[in-house]
Amino acid sequence: MKPNHSRRVVLASTSPRRQELIASLHIPYEIRPSYADEHTPSDWTPRQIVEGLALRKAQAVYEEIGDPSENAVIVGSDTIVVLEDQVLGKPADDADAFRMLKSLQGRAHHVYTGVACIDAATGQRMVRHRMTRVVMKPLSDATIQAYVQSGEPRDKAGAYGIQGLGSTLVEGIEGCYFTVVGLPVSLLSDMLSEFGIDVL
Ligand SMILES: Cc1cn([C@H]2C[C@H](O)[C@@H](COP(=O)(O)OP(=O)(O)OP(=O)(O)O)O2)c(=O)[nH]c1=O
Fold first, then answer.
1. Using a 6 Å CB cutoff, which residues line ligand 1?
2. Annotation says 78 is catalytic
3. Which of the pair, 122 or 6, is modelled with greater confidence?
4. Count of domains forming the chain
């Protein structure tokens, strides 16, 4: 059976990494930045945070383009880094990035990414998450400082990007690499097929 490519994906994201990953699936897509409120109650679990925020991001775009004639699936995603019971989002500034990396170095943490799909015509929705364990090498203050000065940590949860210079800080991972980068494509392709979009 040929893949059904008549529906398109609307990626509710400003993240260049997510845009590159959706492009790699070779399905029709468009980008619509979503500016949902990212504050969450302090008692939410990591799963509730990433699933809740992924859904909020998709919902914000659904409210703009949702229409019975719209043959599209809206996708939202959210990533956090969790060190024991501490949730690390994006660093506020370079000092915050240094502090985050100092706490992550030499030990393991978990990266959670939530993915939400909303059918733009019917409003039908699905939300899931994936988690990957990452072990970071022991790092000297000088190495952390040099990495912070590269500018890479600024827009990334946990203040590192495994896909960039941050790859040199990581000892190993258990789980899906793309969950760390911010969009678990294998989970997304399973979810899209439930909405009538077959990647293969
Ligand atoms: C841990 C890690 C995070 N990240 C990024 C992925 C996400 O873009 C970012 C986490 O912030 P998010 O709030 O999940 O996403 P965002 O604000 O960048 O984009 P959106 O418009 O979709 O809300 O951290 C990496 O790129 N590499 C990594 O190794």
1. 13-15, 17-18, 57, 77-79, 81, 90, 111, 155-158, 160-163, 166, 180-182
2. yes
3. 122
4. 1
